[in-house]
What we know:
By secondary structure, the protein is an alpha/beta fold. Helix content is 52%, strand content 14%. It has helices at residues 11-21, 36-45, 62-72, 87-95, 108-119, 127-138, 152-162, 167-174, 178-192, 197-206, and strands at residues 2-7, 27-33, 50-54, 77-82, 100-103, 124-125.
Amino acid sequence: MIKVLLAEDQVMVRQGLKAMIETEEEIHVTGEATNGKEAVGLCDKQHFDVAILDIRMPEMDGIEAAKVLRSRFPHMKILMLTTFDDNQYVMEALKLGVNGYMLKNGDTESLIRSIKSALSGGLSLEDQVAAKVMPALLQNKEEVSINPTLTPRERAILKCIGEGLNNKEVAERLGLSVGTVKNQTSHILDKLELRDRTQLAIYAIRHRLV
Length: 210
């Protein structure tokens, strides 16, 4: 069973999201919170595989909650949820290394897909969000030359990660085993001195691999 924490201050929205999530038999919302502080408190008491956090909540918003959860529970996947497609929110969330960014008006299929993608190591961005954030990343003035120590295979894997593919999808595209993809991804993280796949995806986009 996949255990999900759902943090959303609007009761009707939270109930609707829970109903959508639990249409998938293996996924269950086992914790509910009305703000980030409650979400952190629940994570201190019980295990969750995925935390879905609304960006705007009272007492502690989703961004602040994500910062705490990333430091305390590095293996838990985090998805951000909002009605606001503001670039700044997206960039802040991505820099934290969250596993996806969804809009509240998304459909059930997209929501389930994002949860499964996060669990398998993918990065999920709604089309509307991706369309806004990619130009912002490409406008970054950092050096765009690729780290010369990356091998051709590592560059190919990095490109796939930049496209949001999970390990299984990368393996299928490149004709590799999932284990090889995992090992190579670890090597890439070490070479680039980055923390996680989200930062790898941002690196790939900034360096014109995508």
